[in-house]
Amino acid sequence: MAFTRRDFLKRAALLVASGLSTPAFLTRTAVALDPQAAAEQGFGVLDPTKASNILVVVQLSGGNDGLNTLVPFGDPAYAQLRPNLGLKPAEALPLTDGLGLHPNLARLKDLYDQGRVAIVQGVGYPNPDRSHFRSMDIWHSARPDTFERSGWLGRYLEACQCGQEGALPALSVGDQLNTLFWTQTILVPAVSNLGAFSFQTDTRYRNDRQFQLRTLQNIYAQTGTWSPYEALIRQGTLNALAASEQLHRAAEGYQTPVQYPANNPLANQLKMVAQVLAANLGTRLFSVQLGGFDTHGNQKNPHATLMKHLAEALDAFLQDLANLKQQDQVLIMTFSEFGRRARENGSGGTDHGTAEPLFVVGNRVQGGLYGEYPSLGDLDRNGDLKFKLDFRSVYAALLRDHLGADPSRVLAGSFEPVGLFPTPG
Amino acid sequence: MALDSERSKVAHLLRRASFGSTEAELDEYAALGFAGALDRLLNYEQVDNSALEQQLPGLQLDFTKIEDGKFWWLYRMLHTRRPLQEKMALFWHTHFATANSKVGNPPLMLRQLQLFHEHALDSFEVLLQKVLRDPAMLIWLDNRLNRKGNPNENFAREVMELFTVGLGNYTEADIKEAARAFSGYTLDQEKRFVFNPRAHDAGPKTFFGETRNWDADDVLAALVRQPATARFLSAKLFRFFVYGSPDQATLDRLAETFVTSDFSTRAVVRAILSGPEFLSPQAYHALAKQPVELVVGTLKALDVANVGRDVTQFARRMGQDLLNPPDVSGWKGGERWINAATLFERFNFANRLATGRDPAKPYFADVAAQVQSKGLSSAEALVDYYTGLLVDGDLTPEARQALLDYLAPDGAFVVDERSIDARVRGLVHLVMALPTYQLA
Question: pLDDT digit string (tens) for B61-81?
């Protein structure tokens, strides 16, 4: 039988009404849509007072040199280990008598002085892996002991029932999905350019767009048994179609008086986060990344540039958050897959190492120094720093005290949350 | 459909061992049968490729510009008569992933690519020795800075973790000792490889439990001969060509081939492409197309002759910036090609081609000529032709019906100039937006 155009439209409308074109991250989290089912599965209930808090994860890819980020200039061993790369006591921006920030972190130092930066020292995990890829997986999965594929924030999304609020609970900025969001059930969109994030059709026949979109919806919403790739493509496409309308509007509606630094790849990404926040889509988790930290040779200038990018991008972003009146909801956490070898190598660089400092930035945090600096006099047999604090204790703090989740639902095992916040709870 | 005809098998082979095909190429290879087509792909030295080599200088590319280098490569993928050589160059570029973002020297990037062309199916040991001495690699993994007494571990670590035995098959101490063996392999002022004996640590080293005066090629020879390398490389090649989860027996067979053939890549690739797994149902449409496969394959399928210099940018936006992989582990590939942003890039590239109407401009697709020459005169004929051409007919009856409804919402469809322009171009776009079009 032949379908008329009216039948076609009616059928498409029916599909929408029956929920077949529901955004895939909703359908795939059906359990999250049903509070009873969720309770039976033992998911933690989100603390409602924290339901609008937002976390932005800044990934410093390649292994950031922690010793030249948070500089122990007061320790004579530092100058011995870093005869060429080391920063002089007068160069570092002092936080204490013996500890200071890289000079290009001046903007971050200002924020620190305002009490908006928590610096957690000596963060790592037992039996450190010095492979970029394995160690990054460990930070993403928060499971150093197994080859777990799911990411810690992906598991949080599963546990928190975030899917029912907005269509876009999380956004991975960049053309690859950050695996800290990966789960079997939720596919977080990865977006690198809001302007280009739409399904384009023939501009000569504008009316055709709706028919193409409906045909596509029709094809993609079909239920069936698909190969893993086809299932992923189907979910990703439905997901993209649903999110693109909203994100497109976000791109159009955003204006800011804040001047983001030019030629700063991190600033561009954080600006995109601000655009999405401005649209109030209910997006609560973001990841952005700055690469180039794998400084095996001639490290000094490139690392200094990266420090500048980091501090200036964070500063502009915080200004924009104030402009958006979201400065009290948003926290930023930085991390890198590892720090670098204590002793500089013969190439004016540093090889892969272990423990590192990380920053948690925002109005909600109690600024200051946390944890303990690893001793330069007590290196492991590889010549690396011994970590003082497990990174999962930082995750636990963010999960419990910022994102309002029971950390044990996300992290395997129990990790004492670092007390990064001024008031309990 | 689904590998049940010789033509479908050859089309499958060309999706994997080439970059898809034009209809004419598919006819040509299909006439040889699957076995004949495979022989021709593998023994590419016997295929005359001079037409391409003669065209390339006419492009007047400036090889000091990386974008011109990327275009040169993609142009080769599009027009080569030796596609498996080009495909293997892509494999090695992903395996020994080196990026101009750090090397900062386009001519050296192209020299490395030339190495991958020359040794595309050669002995893995020979290739590895060349890679150690490759100027772009010496910059990329800092071995040029690796000196006696001042070791730099970067190359030593990655050669084990990513190029040979794989994670978990060496110790941190092995890395430190191998770094000593690689010291002194460096560059001169003109950025040519040079061995500097004064910078080389010739002292005894303990590597893989054996203490002796290891030099760099000794270390590489030992690595190539580790059973872990045979498995690691065989598995990686299998996943590149067939599907994601080879079983143990398959890997054992391929690893054996690698060892008994004196580490011949050609022997392993032949074993993979002629093995029973390759034509099994499990292999059909079982890989996600890499972005360059999607871009080149689409240009071929639609017979797009006029390709813009910006063509590599489509692949970049889909996540594959040639000569600029994200890090030394290369593109993660597989499911990592697929996300909201990259799917739109794929669909929007398809739209760009489907709506390319100006013959004088790049990306012109002559849809009207295609419809006419094939004598497509009904909605069914159009849908079946384009789904056959583009997805090997692999779509559900419901999807086929949806495409028919798109073309003929009122139940009738008259093929004329206007309807071709208004609807058939839309159909071509939609077929390339099917889930199975994203699969190889």
Answer: 999 999 999 999 999 999 999
Residue with tokens 């090695």: B92
Residue B435 sits at the chain A interface (C-beta within 8 Å): yes
Residues in CB range of A106: below 8 A, 6 or more apart: A93, A311
Domain ranges of chain B: 6-225, 227-283, 367-440
Task: Establish if B253 touches chain A: CB-CB under 8 angstroms.
Answer: no
Contacts of B436 (CB under 8 A, 6+ apart): A230, B285, B391, B392, B394, B395
Over residues A137-190, the pLDDT tens digits come to 999 999 999 889 899 999 999 888 665 444 688 999 987 889 999 987 788 888
Query: Which value does ipTM take for this structure?
Result: 0.94
Instruction: Please give the interface size between A and B, counted as residue pairs whose CB atoms are below 8 Å apart.
Output: 203
Task: Give the separation between CA B426 and CA B438, rounded to whole angstroms.
Answer: 18
Q: CA B440, CA B436: separation in Å to the nearest integer?
A: 8
Kindly tell me the burial class for residue B131, based on how many C-beta atoms sit within 10 Å of its own C-beta (0-12, 13-18, 19 or more): buried
Query: What is the number of other CB atoms lying within 10 angstroms of the CB of residue A127?
Result: 9
Using H for helix, E for strand and C for coil, what is the string for chain A? CCCCHHHHHHHHHHHHHCCCCCCHHHHCCHHHHCHHHHHHCCCCCCCHHHCCCEEEEEEECCCCCHHHCEECCCCHHHHHHCCCCCCCCCCCEECCCCCEECHHHHHHHHHHHCCCEEEEEEEECCCCCCCHHHHHHHHHHCCCCCCCCCCHHHHHHHHHCHHHCCCCCEEEECCCCCHHHCCCCCCCCEECCCCCCCCCCCCCCCCHHHHHHHHHHHHHCCCCCCCHHHHHHHHHHHHHHHHHHHHHHHHHHCCCCCCCCCCCHHHHHHHHHHHHHHCCCCCCEEEEEECCCCCCCCCHHHHHHHHHHHHHHHHHHHHHHHHCCCCCCEEEEEEECCCECCCCCCCCCCCECCCEEEEEECCCCCCEEECCCCCCCCCCCCCCCCCCEEHHHHHHHHHHHHCCCCHHHHCCCCCCCCCCCCCCC
Query: Considering CB atoms only, which of A187, A215, A296 is closest to B402?
Result: A215
Instruction: Report the C-alpha gap between A77 and B205 in whole angstroms.
Output: 29
Residues of A in contact with B411 (CB under 8 A): 2-4
State what percent of residues in chain A have pLDDT above 90.
Answer: 71
Flag whether residue B154 sits within 8 Å of chain A, measured between CB atoms. yes
Taking residue A419's Cβ as centre, other Cβ atoms within 10 Å add up to 13
Give the Cα separation of A266 and A271 in Å (integer). Answer: 9
A228 touches chain B (CB under 8 A): yes
What residue type is B161 in one-letter code?
E
Rounded to an integer, what distance in angstroms lies between the CA atom of residue A183 and that of residue B73? Answer: 36
CATH (residue range A5-410): 3.40.720
B337, HSE (Cβ side, Cα atoms, 13 Å): 24
Residue A18 has pLDDT above 50, yes or no: no
Count of Cβ atoms closer than 10 Å to residue A185 Cβ? 18
